[in-house]
Design brief:
two-stranded antiparallel sheet; nucleotide-binding; serine/threonine-protein kinase; 212 residues; protein serine/threonine kinase activity; ATP-binding; Ser/Thr_kinase_AS; binds magnesium ion; binds adenosine-5'-diphosphate
Length: 212
């Protein structure tokens, strides 16, 4: 057999055994993720809220509504006047006055990008508040909190293997949507993919959250 054919044959053989090896990298097509461009129901645009609405929704940011704290500030459970239950991220003021311009620019860019993204495995941005110096992001509420608490056994509920697999696949689909660039035409790199940024809804569907 000519040398070129032997190498081609060896390459093909290696490729087929790679497909059966669970530890070998496989392209996205292999996993047949069929909902990469879902026709999910879109919110027309993000709603804008006042500081008063944010205070009313969270009983003035009462500790009983505190869901957690991250790098950007505290997150509260809130109920909007429509009755919709949401998660409200209260962005902390930067410690230096000179950093205020940067924070403002980041906030605007984040709101602009987040409000254009829509996928069943991405936590949706419902709206925002920019009232005076106060900045808030309003997200869909995820009843079962973050994945880390479940993996660490903090939550009472134990996840079986099929639920864990569903969570892993859901988070992968959310990331794939960002990386494929289908929303904005350019790929978005998450840069902070971790178990506290994978949230679970009432039916344990995983959704990736971005920004903090
Ligand atoms: N949309 C949400 N629904 C329910 N809980 C949330 C939501 N967003 C954040 N949280 C909770 O608030 C915590 C803090 O969130 P965040 O500010 O994003 O910081 P981090 O990602 O470092 O935990 C999360 O770990 C999660 O438990
Ligand atoms: Mg987070």
């Amino acid at each position: 057999m000519p040398f070129g054919l032997v190498t081609a044959w060896k390459r093909r053989l290696a490729k087929s055994s790679d497909q059966n090896d669970p530890w070998k990298y496989k392209s996205l097509e292999y996993w047949q993720l069929d909902d990469r461009r879902p026709s999910a129901k879109r919110r027309q645009r993000s709603s804008v809220y006042t500081l008063k609405e944010m205070e009313e929704a969270t009983s003035s940011f009462g500790d009983e509504n505190l869901l957690g704290k991250g790098g950007f500030g505290r997150v509260y459970k809130g109920t909007l006047s429509s009755g919709e239950v949401v998660a409200i991220k209260k962005m902390e003021l930067p410690s230096f006055k000179s950093a205020e311009g940067d924070r403002e620019r980041e906030f605007r860019v984040e709101v602009d990008i987040l409000s254009r993204l829509e996928h069943p495995n991405l936590v949706s941005l419902i709206g925002y508040c920019a009232d005076g110096k106060h900045r808030f992001l309003v997200y869909e509420f995820m009843q079962h909190g973050n994945l880390e608490d479940h993996l660490n056994g903090i939550s009472e509920m134990k996840m079986d293997w099929s639920q864990r697999l569903k969570v892993a696949l859901g988070a992968a689909k959310g990331l794939d949507y960002l990386h494929s660039g289908s929303a904005l035409g350019i790929p978005i790199v998450h840069r902070d993919f971790k178990s506290t940024n994978i949230l679970l809804n009432s039916s344990f569907e995983a959704k990736v959250t971005i920004l903090g």
